[in-house]
Amino acid sequence: MTGTRRKLTTIFSADVQDYTRLMRTDEEGTLDTLKKYRDAMSRLIEIHGGRVVNTWGDGLIAEFASVVEAVRAALDVQNELAGYNADRPDDTRMLFRIGINLGDVIAEGDDIYGDGVNVAARLQASASAGGIVISNTVYDHVRNKVAVGFECLGQLPVKNIEGGVLSYAVRIGEDSARSAQQDPFPAKGASDEKTVELTNTRNTGSGVVPKWRNYGVLGVVSAGILAINLLSWDGEFWAPWPILALAIVAALSWMRTARQVDHVLAALAIVGFALICINLLSWQGTFWAAWPLLAMAVLGSIRWFTRRRAEP
Asked: N or C, fewer C-beta in 10 Å, the chain?
């Protein structure tokens, strides 16, 4: 008998969207970027208890003992790589697609084979650039354990599997409204569970309520506060204070879901803006905000340079 055996494991499959185009445009630069991005991916996979099984071309296969850690690793990978891509021109960004499946595989040495791996690869191929698609076996394990939303894509046709595999796109941050590519063969009744949300956003018949609507509500409330102040004028212009508070709430909400910004730098910018406004609204002849602004500028510069140095 050979050293083959069967086991249940979580398979993580990833590849690069438009890899051929990137290679055709800049072969050496693309290979260098691929190595750096894949090194970062391997590091995050290991942090979450996974193991890189194999790499080929622009692809990567890994396995995890924990389904939850596999999804968390995928989220960390996409968020970190989004940060790396933020400073690159649009046509040179390297965007990975990730598919995750929990299934039975054949293990031979360090390699794994079988339908479990094939399903993960098929899920990965259906993901959008920078996106994650998971099978229903993964969804059943993580739906109450990972603080993200999921969108049901229906039955995904897979070779050798009758009826296909029910799949879900994982929603990531601000871009969660961009679901993975729609499957051309939706399951019966799939429309009834088209969008499954685990975040605090509301669902509508077509998906998640866009963020701009929330900001619009804050704008209307601000206008109402201003109108109340003017209509009940008694010599005091108090409206800027609650309006400033609403602006800070909106900025913090945007920062929390923004993928392609450094949250520390964004927080420093928001606090700096708030200090300037407070100083001007309570003006007594001294611009005292200059001192904390200077301190935050130093902290922001340190953060910027250390972040740049840490990027692959």
From this structure: N
